[in-house]
């Protein structure tokens, strides 16, 4: 099996796995877009391997596999940054919800105490 077919099979397997995870609600849409994009790129490189060589020569890279490593590493860094941004947003929401819940629990306790004292005095 040539590297093109290997690339095509890996890309299709990745894309189909991502779609299966989305259908089973194990992976949400925005996150799946990254991975489906990766699958599409891998399949595309399998069908058109010279395209990557052409891209490498256009940006001045003499050894095309190094471009793949650099691009892959760059995409991983971008993915990590977006994941950290999302996690920070979720932590902020959780903290705010916990504060609101504490306020509501304090109000509920106050209302229970007030109700209890009104019953005792009546």
UniProtKB/TrEMBL annotation:
InterPro entries: DUF2304 (IPR019277). It comes from the Bacteria. The chain crosses the membrane at residues 6-22, 31-51, 63-82. Keywords: Coiled coil, Membrane, Transmembrane, Transmembrane helix. Pfam families: DUF2304 (PF10066). Residues 87-121 form a coiled coil. This is DUF2304 domain-containing protein. It comes from Lamprobacter modestohalophilus.
